[in-house]
Write a structure and sequence with these properties.
This protein is an alpha+beta fold. The chain has helices at 21-30, 48-53, 56-72, 90-102, 109-114, 119-128, 143-156, 227-231, 241-248; strands spanning 4-15, 81-84, 134-137, 169-176, 193-200, 211-218, 253-257, 262-269. It has 9 helices and 8 strands. Helix 3 crosses helix 6. It has one domain: Peroxisomal Thiolase, Chain A, domain 1 (3-Layer(aba) Sandwich), CATH 3.40.47.10. The protein is globular, with a radius of gyration of 18 Å.
Length: 271
């Protein structure tokens, strides 16, 4: 597979200490963290009560998804989406396993429905009033690369008749949270991290929007080693940060791990 292209119309970002994409770019360039950064996202797409009860993976996914749509000037309800998470919500996984082992009849119905891998996608479509198709996927440490491939493939698909095909766009969201309870003994995932892209077919959709060309190649992608990766070290979604480091620095290249012996080569251009 080669030559999948897109325009990056909008970017959303949330990591511990970096609650926005502007804060992340500033940190990459200066090393300065914002003062009084929130410890948890507060997605405005949800009503206040739901916002407080939502699992942190849902909170971070919705926070970055809405930020990317806002930056792109796109109505969230018009966009198909791909939600990529390595583990889903590890805190809820720990709760489910512990409760099933100790008191199986005490399982919370709310936590049970939040345990499914497409929970964030479900909250997003309901909160945004979106009736477009959504995909939830996991591919272990290649999750973000495979999510990006899925989004680009959907964007390139011309099989459906669409009078507005040239204006076609899609939302990609990547996120993971920390392992808790007994899980760190087998999974050392730490922190909370999420990022989102709105990708379109329009080559000049927005002024100064980066252009991306993706090619799947036989290669080994090195682990990200930039400022964002060091700050988020230990999170399962860190492999995506090679791309976001390049975007923050207006770089022209990134290589993402895409599976055993495979990498997603990303060429970037900036107007």
């Amino acid at each position: 597979m080669s030559g999948l292209v897109a325009t990056i119309e909008g970017i959303g970002y949330w990591g511990n200490g970096l609650p926005t994409w502007d804060a992340a770019r500033h940190y990459v360039r200066t090393g300065a963290l914002p003062a009084d950064a929130p410890s948890r996202p507060s997605p405005q797409l949800l009503a206040p009560n739901e916002r407080r009860r939502a699992p942190e993976t849902v909170a971070v996914a919705l926070e970055v998804a809405l930020a990317a749509c806002t930056a792109a000037g796109r109505d969230p309800k018009t966009l198909p989406s791909v939600f990529a998470s390595t583990h889903g919500d590890l805190a809820i996984t720990d709760y489910m396993c512990t409760t099933l082992a100790e008191a199986p009849h005490a399982i919370s119905p709310t936590r049970f429905h939040n345990s499914v891998h497409n929970a964030a996608a479900g909250y997003w479509t309901i909160g945004a009033g979106c009736m477009q198709a959504t995909t939830a996927l996991s591919a272990f440490d290649a999750t973000f690369a495979e999510g990006l491939l899925e989004a680009l493939a959907q964007l390139a698909d011309d099989s459906a008749a669409d009078d507005n095909a040239d204006d076609k766009a899609i939302l990609l969201v990547g996120y993971d949270n920390a392992a808790v309870g007994a899980l760190p003994s087998v999974n050392r995932c730490s922190g909370l991290l999420g990022a989102a892209l709105v990708l379109s077919r329009q080559p000049h959709a927005r002024a100064h929007a980066p252009q991306l060309r993706a090619t799947l190649v036989d290669a080994h992608a090195p682990p990200p080693a930039g400022a964002l990766a060091r700050l988020a070290a230990g999170n399962a979604m860190v492999p995506m940060l090679s791309l976001f480091e390049a975007l923050a620095q207006r770089g022209d290249f990134a290589l993402l791990h895409a599976g055993h012996g495979r990498a997603l080569r990303l060429e970037l251009s900036h107007d």
